[in-house]
Specification:
4 copies of one chain form a homotetramer. The first copy, chain A, has 342 residues and is α/β, with parallel strands linked by helices. The first copy, chain A, has 2 domains: 95 residues, Aspartate Aminotransferase, domain 1 (Alpha-Beta Complex); 237 residues, Type I PLP-dependent aspartate aminotransferase-like (Major domain) (Aspartate Aminotransferase, domain 2, 3-Layer(aba) Sandwich), CATH 3.40.640.10. Chain A contains 14 helices and 13 strands. In chain A, helix 1 crosses helix 11, helix 2 runs parallel beside helix 11 and helix 12 runs parallel beside helix 14. The longest helix of chain A is centred in the C-terminal third of the chain and has 22 residues. The mean pLDDT of chain A is 97. The interface between A and D is medium-sized, with 19 and 19 residues.
């Protein structure tokens, strides 16, 4: 069985596990006030060229999004997001549970937002009988593998600043995005253009952990209190700091992401060569295929994947195959050989 | 420096770390649907003699309490808890953030609730202009180290069932409680007497993780959805299952807890022998001293501890010293020797 | 100026005002526990042929919807509603503020939901990483003036019962709906087919007040507590009971609604005769026109109306004209004469 | 039967009813954007000498408190209030339902807060694992009839400003407070010392309605949106404006309150003369008696009152008798005569 179900099926590479193990009997202060978290924060702010920023470590992706939205918004404010976003469709109503309406923009198959998709929503919500738009949330990479260019994110950022909106980037797959051949975006760009963004560890080499960069100083005060309130403070907080330190000290994070992207590119190229139908042409580590039910069943016998959504073509399904740091060229080639035989 | 700050200053014993490391490259299904979680659940339900129960693994103590209260309660229902409870004083308003009022009962220094403390609150809240009491929350061990006997918990349980209340036990320090010489309570007792309770991993040998036992089947449906909604689902959920399996397969959990209790007893006995003033006589792994400011400063030079609360005696402070699985007899004796010299 | 802005621009007819005035110095028990509320409840349940029901009086439409949704749902449950619904677009995120996600179905211009619009949403939300659908909310009359037939509501009701969903009807304009020539629906039908529905007073002859009929006994317990919690209990509750008693004792409610509908029909027929473009053909008291900016400006000089939404035709706007119990034939004819001159 | 149950048992005096009746067929703009509300706001701000203020009209007392707290607070912030406050004990957890913890100060029998009661709570909540104190809520008159002097409110106000706290005064019985012989406080004092306060209509001559004065400009933006979201916007908003205009145009509000206070003073003096035991000596329109069960039963036969709380004396109850604008000297004297015969 080839494992392409997702990029959180494997734990962590040896460097990260070793870093964790070393902390075990040191006796550290709890709740993220330890030296590992402090050093990891300094490292990330340095890489982001954002000395006025602050980094908060949380455990998971839904958690960090929920805490950030709850922290940033007043009760009557809402979040502009793509109808296809993880925030809307796969977080079990976490933002609404914190009291905030999502205002859905109709994104295309690449999952990306553009100012022209947001403008009509802004206009409609000037009516005070509606929720006030306040945060624009985008994911990079998007849920369908797309990446924002610097120009695209700059346009969104300018639109937000012109309209009193905060820009928040869900970077659960930020490693895959920033190391994609199609991306010219950098960490300093993100810190300059977004008010806050996450650097996802879970899907790129950490056992768990998301780093939330609060680039905008107005978003920093009292953050610990709401993180604690929403169950996002890890008692043994150094476990997160130590992993991020290991991932970013020597560029391991980007190396792992590049590996996942390279394996995905090899996989996508192989599938094209087999003349299989792609749903989108993905520049990152998620690959999407349109398959009929015969092929879907056959694939289930040789690999783990996820159904993504019904395809436009009747009786067809969009399925998703995901690579990660633990995927090897042998995995990809073996799978392609098996697929060719179907 | 002797480290008595708390029982989550150290990571995990080698058996737990080893179990974690082995999972890393296996390729596991996410979100707790893996074999480790299934086996750990079966193991715990077996130890609890509660085949109709269900176990949910969450990451931390505030998180599991917040998710449980949100899951169990309707919006107009409240939680009866001790005024000195962690739920009330140290979780940053997490239960209220989910919309529920805490109804505070005036517990004594042992932190324990008894039916007669709850009855007046019930009577006052028959008025429909008030919140409806629905959950009774107790901690075992309590925040000041006390433990419930079987008779005490049985009385609470009977009171709850007579009054349409659910009984929830916060077992963040359940290991310390169940292995205390003063306790005759067992896991099967808990499963029989409480509607739900937690078995805390974080404070007794896990890197992180709390097992929530939903003994009452009425509390089980849809739990995953609210756990996800509140950010309590770990993507790499097997990390929790593997730790609990390692802790409970061969009784390691109880062995670690016994070690922490034994070190605390040795510490408390030594302090008594020095004629230092205890705030309460603790049967578990938290020891409380009443110290003046001179002694407090002197202690700060030789050990890590926490200020607990102002003492009744003017200018005095109650401080807390905590032992855990990683505390050694040498730590205790070394500290006592140093303390004797102050 | 002809006043067609909405159906809550006028207070109440003399019978209602007289009923209110008489209560003023009687000395009544507060919070809806008075004789007026009891009698009005009995009257409504009798008209609904629903002896096992319960009626709760609240002050306004957004309030009653918000309280009902908060009362009916568990935190992880959501509401299926039309994308064009008042609940979604004009209640400032009230349902989300109570923690619940709206799941939007793409209704047509008539604003009505049908099972086939709901089915794909149900399927998508079997995934436990999403919100669980639990309530289907429809408005009768809809926001664009449409009405449900008995067959249509029966189909929705059957779909709901087959799928474990509650059916809730927002009857802010129920009078207009039930007295529409296109409707064969009755109060007993509603009580039989819906789990709960409102009978709107505010838009049909009351100063304020919505009667919430809880036809499904499972929805009744503890309702007062959440109504109080959400600020929906009026201290002088008899003011609501007295108005509903006056409106329903002798059929005044239906007489007022019929009058509003008749005036709207006269208005719509007159506009058609002038060859003006209708957006939808409305069978109730809201009339929708598509106008260009020249005509829109000209109309603003002779009558009060509301912009409804951008029209499909570039530079055109859909505007809404509303009649009510206080609209006279002279108002309509005078307006039509003036409109013909534009 | 003499009616002393509460001060919301009667509707409104003729001047208020007449003002309401006149608005009925005028055709007014909805949602509080009408001329009545504008004029009433200007009148109140003028009386408060607070030109930079803003007035929001809401329907009821629990509602206005819940909306104000939700509007003023961030999710991690809490409200300091007396343990005996209406906010804590009689609003069904409305503030907690909006996500905020109440931090209870142990007030004396007069129900008043003083800085020294608040200081220990502030100190305890510097710990970021707790809720951050942000609003101090006091009622004037208090729940047990007490009133704040200018010196007392000034001290609270100074304490709040020194500690980054907002001061909010629940004025559900503000008329009774300001016209009490023991009060030297004025509306301009309130506007100067408090960040926001309410002027209660419901308990002093309005059918319903509370005016919220947002004296602090920082609290004003977007208030309409949250008022709408929480169901606090009345469609026929002019009903509130017209009542407040009628009550404040010529001082009627204060005249009504003085009448209620005078009747209470006459009642309290008469009860003292009978040598009945007062629970507190009340300077406003709520009178509290300690009675045994024999007297309590006897009283139930001659007047309507409310049980307030268990008395300290075993088997005794504190009961409350309330006067209002509709109470006459004949009511009081008749009752006292009947009481003397018991």
């Amino acid at each position: 069985m080839y494992l392409f179900r997702n990029d959180y099926s494997f734990g962590a590479p040896p460097q990260v596990l070793a870093a964790l193990g070393e902390t075990s009997l040191e006796g550290n202060v709890g709740y993220g006030e330890d030296g590992y978290c402090r050093r990891a924060e300094a490292l990330l702010l340095d890489l982001c060229q954002c000395p006025e920023g602050k980094v908060e470590f949380l455990t998971g992706g839904t958690q960090v999004n929920a805490v950030a939205m709850a922290a940033f918004l007043r009760p009557w404010e809402g979040v502009l997001t793509a109808d296809s976003s993880h925030l809307n469709g796969h977080e079990a109503g976490a933002v609404e549970a914190a009291g905030h309406k999502l205002l859905l923009a109709p994104a295309g198959p690449d999952g990306k937002l553009r100012p022209e998709l947001l403008l009509p929503i802004l206009e409609e919500h000037q009516n005070p009988h509606t929720v006030k738009p306040r945060v624009v949330e985008v994911a990079d990479a998007t849920e369908s593998g797309g990446v924002y260019t610097r120009a695209e994110l700059s346009a969104l950022s300018a639109f937000c600043r012109d309209n009193g909106l905060l820009l928040y980037v869900d970077g659960a797959r930020l490693g895959a995005a920033l190391t994609s051949p199609q991306s010219d975006l950098t960490l300093p760009d993100l810190a300059r253009l977004a008010d806050a963004f996450t650097i996802g560890g879970t899907k790129n080499g950490a056992l768990m952990g998301e780093a939330l960069v609060l680039a905008n100083p107005a978003l920093q005060p009292d953050f610990f209190r709401i993180k604690k309130q929403m169950g996002g403070v890890l008692a043994k907080g150094w476990l997160l700091g130590a992993q991020f330190e290991a991932l970013f000290r020597d560029g391991l994070y980007f190396e792992l992401a590049r590996r996942g992207n390279a394996m995905a590119a090899r996989l996508q190229a192989g599938l094209k060569a087999l003349d299989w139908q792609l749903w989108v042409d993905s520049p990152t580590n998620q690959i999407f295929l349109v398959v009929d039910q015969v092929r879907r069943s056959a694939l289930q016998a040789i690999c783990a994947f996820e159904d993504w959504r019904p395809a436009r073509e009747s009786g067809h399904t969009v399925i998703r195959l995901v690579t990660c740091f633990a995927t090897t060229p042998e995995d990809v080639d073996g799978f392609l050989t098996a697929a060719a035989r179907l």
